[in-house]
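User: What would this chain look like folded?
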Amino acid sequence: MPELPEVQALRVFLDDHLVGKEIARVLPLAISVLKTYDPPVSALEGATVTGVTRHGKFLDIGAGDLHLVTHLARAGWLQWKESFPATPPRPGKGPLALRVVLAAGDGFDLTEMGTTKRLSVHLVRDPAEVPGVARLGPDPLDEAFGREAFAALLAGERRRIKGALRDQALIAGIGNAYSDEILHVARMSPFKLTANLSEDDVTTLYTALRTTLTDAVERSSGLEAGKLKAEKKSGMRVHGRTGLPCPVCGDTILEVSFSDSSLQYCPTCQTGGKPLADRRLSRLLK
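Assistant: Here's the prediction, encoded as structure tokens.
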């Protein structure tokens, strides 16, 4: 799933490639992708792109007084095209969800792999009309998001820190991958309860959050859209690396599986050498 660093890089890429250009066509090609119908997407035709903004993991393309807001979800992606075939694609065929063609002939496709379709596109007059945008917490890379602001958010929480970091209503933009990475840098168990965090723990976690996200944004800066997935994967220390050695201590990276996701961690760096309980695996072994 694209998270804050990748979406930020896409924002910069699209800002360079879209702003000042006229939109010729917007073609929804998957039944599930378009979540709004008033105004219709045809209202964008002839409009000039004025800016591209990021709200957490949402991309917001502004054109006139309208905003095309998309969330790529778990399996979505944006593919830039210098040109398109003369024949429009057939709706419902393959991973193609939406196509935006500029008057100059270039543009982009939104695609989504797999059978679970969660990629969403809203056309609105105000980004706050999108429910997911309206409920977002503060952006962790905002200059106003200091250590004390972070501490204040956690003060009212009583749950595992992994879940708190992933909660978009608490902090915008962090997902499964970067929460694993932040916790590894902080040398903190994903199962540690927010209520048990000391003042030093909060400082350590805040520093890990800022450095991890900032480093990821810097690595992705200037990359073409098609290269961002590979950059994200190559920069991971523990996420998606089950069974491989920890780059810090050399211990084997372990995994905890859930019904629709998993987390990865280093037992030496994060849990005092003790494996975390994996109830799903335990049930399979019975």
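Residues 282-286 have pLDDT under 50 and may be disordered. If you want, I can go into more detail on any region.
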